C-alpha cells in the first residue's frame, strides 16, 4: 500500500498542518515503522502534492513532536509512533490523550456557549486580565505559567456555564486538565496560536455570541490537541 495525498488546494499553514497529520497517520498505521526512513524529500513532497518548503516545515513539526529524527545527509528516520506528549500522558494516566481531548471538545465547547448567558462585565474583566497574563507568559516563554493561566481561563469558563453536571465531571478531571494544558507547548514555535485562539474565544464571549464562542472553543481544543500530536475527527471538519 503506497500512501498518496494531495494537499495543495489549501493555504500554506493548512497545507503544513495537513502534511503533519498525513505523515503522522502513515507512521501510526505502520506504513513507515520505527527505524525506517521516510522517502527522500523530493519524492515525499510529490506524494503529498506540496512544496518542499511546506514539507520541511512539516518535518520540523514532526521532529519537535518526537516522531522523527532528521539526520543531515542521511535522511529522515522514524523514531516513534507516538508524540512525546502522548508517551508522557500514557505513563501517567489510564485513559488515552485522544479520548481526553475529545471529552474536552464536547464539554468545554458547550460550556462556552452557556457561559455567554451568564457573563458579567466583571467576568469579562477577569478573563481579559487572564488573557494578558497568558500572552505575557507565552511571549516570555514561561511555559509553566502559561499552562497555569491557560488552565485558569478554561476553568473560569466552565464555572460560568452554571451547568453543575459539567462542572462536576470536569472537577473530577482537575489533575488531568492541568497536565493537558502544558502539552501543546511542546512546540514553542506554535505557542502564538494559543494567544490567537484565546483572543477569538474572549471576543465571542464579550460579544455574547454563543455560537461563535462555542465554535471558537471547538477550534481551540482541536488546535491544542494537534499541537500535542493528537488528531481526531470533529463535526466541524
Give a quick set of tags describing it.
237 residues; mainly alpha; Four Helix Bundle (Hemerythrin (Met), subunit A); 2 domains; two-stranded antiparallel sheet
Description:
This protein is mainly alpha-helical. The protein has 2 domains: 12-78, Orthogonal Bundle (Arc Repressor Mutant, subunit A); 91-228, GntR ligand-binding domain-like (Four Helix Bundle (Hemerythrin (Met), subunit A), Up-down Bundle). The chain contains 11 helices and 2 strands, in the order H-H-H-E-E-H-H-H-H-H-H-H-H. The chain has helices at 12-28, 41-48, 52-64, 84-92, 97-118, 121-139, 143-160, 164-171, 174-182, 192-206, 210-227; strands spanning 68-71, 75-78. Strands 1-2 form a two-stranded antiparallel ribbon. Helix 1 (12-28) packs across helix 3 (52-64) and helix 6 (121-139) runs antiparallel to helix 7. The protein starts with 11 loop residues before the first helix and ends in a 10-residue tail after the last helix. Residues 13-81 form the HTH gntR-type domain. Keywords: DNA-binding, Pyruvate, Transcription, Transcription regulation. Pfam families: FCD (PF07729), GntR (PF00392). GO terms for molecular function: DNA binding; DNA-binding transcription factor activity.
